[in-house]
Amino acid sequence: MTAKLRSSLLAPALAIAFSALLCAIALLASGANPAEALGVMIGHVGKGQVAVDIVNSTAIYMLAALAAAIGFQMNLLNIGIEGQYRIGALVAAIVGSALVLPPVLHWLVILVVASLAGALWALLPAILKVTRGVHEVLSTIMLNAVAFGLAAYLIRRDMFGILIGNNVSTEPIPESGRVQGIDFGDRGTVFGLVFLAVAVAAVYGVVMQRTRFGFELKASGESPTAAAAGGVNAKKMIVVSLLVSGGVAGLVGMPEILGRDHAYTLNFAAGYGFAGLGIALLGRNHPVGIAFGSLLWAFLEKAKVALDNVGVPREIATIMQGSIVLSVVVAYEIVKRMDLAAEQRRVGRALGTAEPVEAEVGGDRK
Amino acid sequence: MTDTERDQTPAVALTGITKRFPGVVANSDVHLTVHAGEVHALCGENGAGKSTLMKILYGMQAPDEGTIEVAGEPVRFRSPAEAIRAGIGMVHQHFMLADNLTVLENVVLGAEGLHGIGKRAKARVRELAVATGLDVDPDTLVERLGVADRQRVEILKVLYRGARIVILDEPTAVLVPQEVDELFDTLRSMRADGYTFLFISHKLDEVRAIADTVTVIRRGTTVGTVDPRTVSSRQLAEMMVGSELPSPEHRHTPVGDDEVLRVEGLTLRTQDDRTLLDSLDLVVRSGEVVGIAGVEGNGQTELVETIMGMRRAAEGRVLLAGKDLTRAGTLARREAGIGYIPEDRTRHGLLLTQPLWANRILGHQTRRPTARGIMLDVAGARQDTQRIVEEFDVRTPGIEVTAASLSGGNQQKLVVGRELSGDPVLLIASHPTRGVDVGAQAAIWDQIRAARARGLAVLLVSADLDELIGLSDSIKVMLRGRFVGDADPTSVTCEDLGAAMTGAGSTDAEGHLLVDEGETQ
After folding, report:
1. What is the pTM (predicted TM-score) of this model?
2. What is the CB-side half-sphere exposure of residue A176 using CA atoms within 13 A?
3. Contacts of A23-26 spanning 24+ positions with Cβ under 8 A
């Protein structure tokens, strides 16, 4: 087991080291000092609300990455998380502002609505895939565009939008539908729904490791043919996993909406879905891996602002994110092959000692 | 080829080859001398190290120790391309042909530099086709070719690349007896033309029929090189397994009366309305083994997959112990008591990167001892995997290793053990001993026999006619999606079955194979 742990840590460590090297080269090429840049980024964490922002972002990235990972487990590429979380957030904000419910129940209902809306947005790709064989990458990418358009339309002032200050947003969610955060004063407020991300990750971990559903999902992902022969209904798994993925995706916008914005605004953040895909790759679909991947991502995202102060283009952080994902994919493949070879050697050794080569029979004819 | 010529420099000499990559089996101190113009058979159990040795010879792996000499020149191949340049070609067991390309295109693909892709290439292909006995136009699409011709295209490919020494990896596995004879005729004529063959096989009778020399390899090392004319198949097999040899002799136990599986009018069509299965009727009783004989691609796979619910029948019914399963899914059929040994364990039977105990769960994810409700029972799965490992003699250091790290025979024993778990009433066994070593084969046969004796009904599909005859209580011959005849395993011979499988056999009014008593052994 320690060998297994070692190999599962080896790959990301290699990948991060390699991508750090790439970034260092990029920094040197642009005439900056890599050590200084890193120092500035790390130093930035201690400033103002940055640390809390990182924690909050980590939770959001975790949700997006978990949504991606559910698809990845059975080789479904749900590129549509971006659209699903936008629709989930918008519908939840609209429904949440219209409901009158007691405090805790109110935000629970909003979460359910967000999740359902996200799942619904993933339903069409699922149906198209199992009935017509339409690849989910195509359908979900296109639905992302539709989601953006639909959201822009629904937030118009003749639909559900109202003007608050300079910003168009939905009707604010009343106090009872908001989720209290943990206040750190000047340092900022940690979203209460950070714990939602942790809970989703924990449930995801248990489902994958310990339930029939998780087993069937992984089996379908590893070998659709063996899964089919083992009685796994491939079509059902496609529909269910896309719906669950969409359902988790629907929650991605919730920490911000229920914890800070209290409405869906024109400034609603984009890009979490795509980041989630990268982080799921980085974390190898493992809940703990995803948590660390999200933390790293959030750090790079929030700390890169500081780079401008030392005259380094902040895009270097984007290069780092991209190169980490790329290196991780390569590193895992290498480590996986090394592991298999090592295990085969181990099996061979174990059996070799158990069964010594017997005496030779038969004559030689040279 | 006279004896004096034979004694000249060997075409290939492997000396003291050691590969310290003791994967499933290492090669340790292997000696193999292949003379020019001979058919040299390499025999050994699966996992004995034949593949590693061939990979070393073919440049796919480098030996740690030892030397390779080709025509007296020491060589060190770093890639198959270098081996091909030295005149060594390999025909893999699984064909690597593009169906939608012509024979010519398949042959030239990747070797465009040799004779271009035009007239010169075609002329060369035609010329070599004669040698391989391939009697089709180079512009024929490969999808129109039968298995035997595809194999010839594969041989043609390596010849086109200039091979004079051809490694054939279990070339007869996919052929019916008549085709095997034709292949052997081809090999003999090519041998007369000066080609050298390294022939890998499990099938000792075939080895004896074609080989000039046999080298036996066991547990990674060469056990000996013998003249097949002076040793019996049995002696050869004993060299391979190093112990007393099991034989697939027929042991009848009384067949029960209960109908376990009933298939009525089962018809399967492709989307473009080609009929794959044509109104098949079949009954398997408790304690009975019904064998399905047929050349591969005549509907056996489809029949099995339709009974398992992996394909949807257009017409007909499938009943298990009187219960209609026609519309049930695969899982429901498994839960109803069908065990299924798929023909390709790596594609359909195992999750290769998962540990053995996770593989125990596959197909049993809703049943005890591997699951409780929606939760998996990992402890139960581990425990039961341990039981399978012990009862079925799966050679493994533990149940945490991945399925991919076991040898083929041990993987198959695990699959058989799993499919016999949970008290099935019907076992569908598709090529249950394909590609496994003699020892594992005997163990699997024993397990199937024992299960039959306990009242299990077995539907056995196999390309190994000895296995079919040895295990079955009755045999049905399948041709182009239909049952074309029945055979009694106590009287039928491989030759008769082979003839019936190609449609050349004669049957009487009731569809029974006519057996010429004079030919019966």
Report:
1. 0.73
2. 12
3. A23/A316, A23/A319, A23/A320, A23/A323, A26/A316, A26/A319
Whether the CB-CB separation of B260 and B459 falls below 8 Å is answered with no
Q: Determine contact, residues B86/B166, Cβ cutoff 8 Å.
A: no
What ipTM was assigned to the predicted interfaces of this complex? 0.78
Residue A324 CB partners (closer than 8 Å, separation 6+): A15, A16, A19, A278, A282, A296
Q: Inter-axis angle of helices B408-419 and B438-453, to 10 degrees?
A: 10
CB contact (8 A) between residue A210 and residue B361: no
Determine the average pLDDT of the residues in B356-379. Answer: 87
- DSSP string covering B455-499, please? T-EEEEE-S-HHHHHHH-SEEEEEETTEEEEEE-TTT--HHHHHH
| Interchain pair B22, A213: CB under 8 A | no
Q: List pLDDT tens digits, range A22-76.
A: 888 888 887 778 888 888 888 888 888 899 999 999 999 999 999 999 999 988 9
How confident is the model over B177-213, as pLDDT tens digits? 778 888 888 888 888 888 899 988 767 778 888 888 9
Tell me which chain A residue has its CA closest to the CA of residue B419: A230
Q: Whole-angstrom Cα distance, residue B521 to residue B273?
A: 43
Shortest alpha-carbon distance between residue B354 and chain A (Å): 9
Contact B511, B484 (CB under 8 A): yes
Is there a contact between B375 and A212 if contact means CB atoms under 8 Å apart? Answer: yes
Name which of A2, A215, A336, A366 to mutate to probe chain B: the one with the most chain B Cβ atoms within 10 A of its Cβ. A215
Question: Mean of the per-residue pLDDT values for chain A?
Answer: 86
Closest CA to B225 of A97, A17, A236, A361: A361
Chain B neighbours among A 56-115 (CB < 8 Å)? Answer: none
The amino acid occupying position A262 is H
Q: Is B245 on the interface with A (CB under 8 A)?
A: no
Q: How many CA atoms lie within 13 A of A8 on its CB side?
A: 13
End-to-end CA distance of chain B: 34
For B128-141, how does the pLDDT look when each residue is reduced to its tens digit (9 = 90+)? 888 887 878 888 88
Chain B residues within 8 A of A355 when measuring between CB atoms: 219, 395
Contact flag B223-A360 (C-beta cutoff 8 Å): yes
Could B23 and A348 be called an inter-chain contact, meaning their C-beta atoms sit closer than 8 Å? yes
User: What DSSP element (H or E) covers B150?
Assistant: helix B147-160
pLDDT tens column, B22-52:
334 467 788 888 888 899 998 876 556 777 7
| B432 pLDDT more than 80 | yes
pLDDT tens across B267-297, in order? 888 777 778 888 889 999 888 899 998 776 7
**Residues 382 through 421 of chain B touching chain A, CB cutoff 8 Å:** 395-397, 401-402, 404-406
Please tell me if residue A341 touches chain B, with a CB cutoff of 8 Å: yes
Question: What's the pLDDT at B408?
Answer: 76
Distance (Å) from the alpha carbon of A354 to chain B's nearest alpha carbon: 9
Q: Three-state SS across B209-226?
A: HHCCEEEEEECCEEEEEE
Cβ partners under 8 Å of residue A256, min gap 6 = A56, A60, A191, A268, A269
Question: Are residues B352 and A352, on separate chains, in Cβ contact within 8 Å?
Answer: no
A5 touching B, CB under 8 A?
Answer: no
Predicted confidence at residue A143, as pLDDT, reads 94
Bridge partners (DSSP) listed for residue B169: B200
Work out the angle at residue B383's Cα, subtended by the Cα atoms of residues B379 and B389, and round it to the nearest 5 degrees: 145
pLDDT of residue B311: 87
Distance CA A169, CA A160 (A): 8
The answer to whether the Cβ–Cβ distance between A340 and B404 falls below 8 Å is: yes
Q: Do A230 and B362 touch (CB under 8 A)?
A: yes
Q: Do B33 and A366 touch (CB under 8 A)?
A: yes
Q: Are B71 and B9 in contact (CB under 8 A)?
A: yes
